[in-house]
Amino acid sequence: MDVSIAFNTLLLFLLFSAIFPLSSFSAANQPRYAKKPNTPSSHNHHLSSSAVFKVQGNVYPLGHYTVTLNIGYPPKLYDLDIDSGSDLTWVQCDAPCKGCTKPRNQLYKPNHNLVQCMDPLCSEVHLSTESTDYNCASPDDQCDYEVEYADHGSSLGVLVRDYIPFQFINGSVVRPRVAFGCGYDQKFSGSTSPPSTAGVLGLGNGRASILSQLHSLGLIRNVVGHCLSARGGGFLFFGDDFIPSSGIVWTSMLPGSSEKHYSSGPAELFFNGKTANVKGLELIFDSGSSYTYLNSQAYQAVVDLVTKDLKGKQLKRATEDPSLPICWKGSKSFNSLSDVKKYFKPLGLSFTRDKNLQMHLPPEAYLIITKHGNVCLGILDGTEVGLENLNIIGDISLQDKMVIYDNEKQQIGWVSSNCDTFPNVDRDLEGNFAHPYTTNLDIFGDRCPASYEETD
Ligand SMILES: *[C@@H]1O[C@H](CO)[C@@H](O)[C@H](O)[C@H]1NC(C)=O
């Protein structure tokens, strides 16, 4: 197919939340505005630091954004799909493997470092992925995992624990031992080509995520953010040092939401500044999804409004373009979104609980130009693909924004941002940092040139 749709939101929780809508979680036993007790790591705030990673990829044609992470000792580089819609990080495993797409020398080889099934982290993984049927027969059994994503792709494997070195912006390199999955049985959803990445970097806040593990070790504040450029690439950070001091729009996470994925709302849909009469949308912020998915009702409203608004303009439906369900062509083929922007109006999401709180979706945040020179709608019908009533804000709508998932304060924030400019610690951050700034990709680049080159 033309386009691979990375779509990594954890399926099992989606099913769960479809049965028990998030709004039915009682706020009574989880006061949203209660002050959090001081955890050990918040005492250590002055010690904790941040780490930043270069992001590669794009919405179209690749369909994913990735970071390259050093794992193991000696470290090897793995390109991982960044996914704020799931917790568990896994890499393709050098074991008899079904569905490994990388050459063998780029797979992760377990080295007597399997996590045992009595390890508390093992039950955390099972809590967040399979609800019940897990038992640990013998304490030194390995810890198996299985994750299934909303696009019906899946990974099955075993948990391992290994060194993942992080270069922090204070200059220190720390090598915590972190648990992650070694996946030896991957399935891909039928309609898309197998992902070219070595695995998934789960950015959720479940205990098993790398974010939570680094936080429990007192290394970072429980905050993660990304800035995905519409021109491809961008950056990802752990910790709170990169949060701009002003300009961010913050909205609270739905109670309990961050443990599985980050959601907020309810929101009302706007088209060209006027209400589209669609209200009560709960939104999952999901960097693992290339496109944005709305429930049928909201999707249909968008399609109707956009279609109606195109009447009399020079765009015709391009049903022969297989890239996405709805495409239009012009009299000449389009090269970039700037050729078509004038034909389309902005969409907007207005968060009904917080006054005047909006997410603006200019045409760039919901359209792509295909290699056939047509423009296509990057908002899809979620109900049709089995998401029922859920709504997913995917990469296309998160581009050129800094998006911050702040688990300390239980809020999600965003601000328009130029994601092409990698943050410069000396320029952008106050404080004295001991070393000139480097990215995490550079840590071992000079020492392991061979593995560095393998990543392309
Ligand atoms: C830098 O930050 C890391 C991670 O929080 C911490 O472990 C380390 O001690 C810090 N180094 C210095 C020199 O403060």
From TrEMBL:
Belongs to the peptidase A1 family. InterPro entries: Aspartic_peptidase_A1, Aspartic_peptidase_AS, Nucellin, PEPTIDASE_A1, Peptidase_aspartic_dom_sf, TAXi_C, TAXi_N. Residues 65-415 form the Peptidase A1 domain. GO terms for biological process: proteolysis. The lineage of its organism: Eukaryota, Viridiplantae, Streptophyta, Embryophyta, Tracheophyta. The keyword Repeat applies. It comes from Psophocarpus tetragonolobus. CDD domains: nucellin_like (cd05475). Residues 1-26 form the signal peptide. It comes from the Eukaryota. GO terms for molecular function: aspartic-type endopeptidase activity. Coiled coil: none annotated. The active site is at residues 83, 286. PROSITE patterns: ASP_PROTEASE, PEPTIDASE_A1. Keywords: Aspartyl protease, Hydrolase, Protease, Repeat, Signal. This is Aspartic proteinase Asp1.
